[in-house]
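Posted in: Protein Modeling Q&A

I'm a second-year student putting together a small comparison for a lab meeting, and my supervisor asked me to include a predicted structure for SHSP domain-containing protein. I've never done this before, so apologies if this is the wrong subforum. The sequence is pasted below exactly as I got it from our records. If anyone can share the structure token output, I'd also love a short note on what stands out.
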Amino acid sequence: MEFGGGFTFDKEPCHPDNCSLFIGGDNLAGMTSLTIENWIKKNETIPQNFAHIFKKRKENYGFIHFVDEETKINFFEEVDGKKFKIGQESEEELTIHFFPLVRKKQAEHKTVDSNYGPSHNLYNLYDDGTIFSLYINIPTINNKDEISLYVDDDDKVVIISGEYKNINIVEGNHFIKKLIPTGRFETKIPLPSRIDPTKKVKIEKVDAISLFKITFTKGEGYKKRRLSIE
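Accepted answer (user: helix_wrangler)
Welcome! Here is the predicted structure, written out as tokens:
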């Protein structure tokens, strides 16, 4: 198991990875899915926009599932890095916290060798009417030519990839924490609606820092079309 940027696992949840989070905590072994779910629902500080909990009684961890990826993202933004007390009626103090999913085979092939993570580039997303404006911080990247842009089949998820540069810093032999990322990265950013992949994307460097503004033209919504019948 891996705590921190993600939680490594080798079991299969009943929902896809992009609609699931890991739950862990203290003294959860022996508790059923329904018990954990009911206790979470009694804690008003935990968002309630999840589908259900999946947990084996003997395990000290489980899964929390969501109806779609956007709901999961909104949930995680509110609980990331926090630990919650549940089960006040229990004799033992029970706590629960939430982690992204990382499969073991993904962790073994992970090329980013820092705690920053391959998909944690901080960004702001704005809706400017006919366009989406994305401001994203990509450490060590100084030129837009070092960035590759893709869009998924539904034209609603933008994928930004590249490679962080190695920074040679000589400050003795021992470091306390290493958070400046290195290696390949890939950041997936879900959008509220489709973009038009036929339009050119504009990338601008913002000032002298590693902040880029990327502008996407919105696409038309899905329309019902009449089908011809032979």
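A couple of things worth pointing out for your meeting: The first strand starts at residue 7 and ends at 9. The chain has three helices and 14 strands.
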